[in-house]
Amino acid sequence: MLSQLLPMLAITFTVFMLFFIFMGIGYMVNKKPLRGSCGGVAKLMGNEKCSYCGDDPNKCDSIIAEQQENALKAAQLGKSV
């Protein structure tokens, strides 16, 4: 039984590790944080107000633009963010 379980656990662990590695690479390339949708599950549950963007979809974009601008300034100074 153990001889059948170990290869399956190794494959599962490898798949999860690859998933997280690719997520990390995707984050480093795009520099966009993971974010929820304003209105998805929260609206279904009766919560009409989005706590992250305050029902302003442009706020998320402005936060990302500000983070990119700060990263550019830090890169010009020779510092990492």
Give the helix level as a range of percent.
55-70%
Please mark out the parts with pLDDT under 50 across 5 or more consecutive residues, or reply none.
none
Main sheet: strands, sense, barrel: none
Span between termini: 49 Å
The structural class is mainly alpha
Rounded mean pLDDT is: 75
Quantity of strands, as a count: 0
Number of helices: 3
**Strand residues, percent:** under 5%
Keywords: Membrane, Transmembrane, Transmembrane helix
Organism: Psychrobacter arcticus (strain DSM 17307 / VKM B-2377 / 273-4)
InterPro entries: NqrM
Pfam families: NqrM
Describe this entry's structure for a reader.
By secondary structure, the chain is mainly alpha-helical. The protein folds into 2 domains: 1-30; 36-81. It is built from 3 helices and no strands. The protein has helices spanning 2-30, 41-44, 57-77. Keywords: Membrane, Transmembrane, Transmembrane helix. It comes from Psychrobacter arcticus (strain DSM 17307 / VKM B-2377 / 273-4). InterPro entries: NqrM.
Task: Provide a short characterization of the protein structure.
With 81 residues, the chain is an all-alpha fold. It contains 3 helices and no strands. The protein is 67% helix and 0% strand.
Descriptive keywords:
single chain; 3 helices; 81 residues; 2 domains
Write the layout of secondary structure elements.
Layout: H1 2-30, H2 41-44, H3 57-77
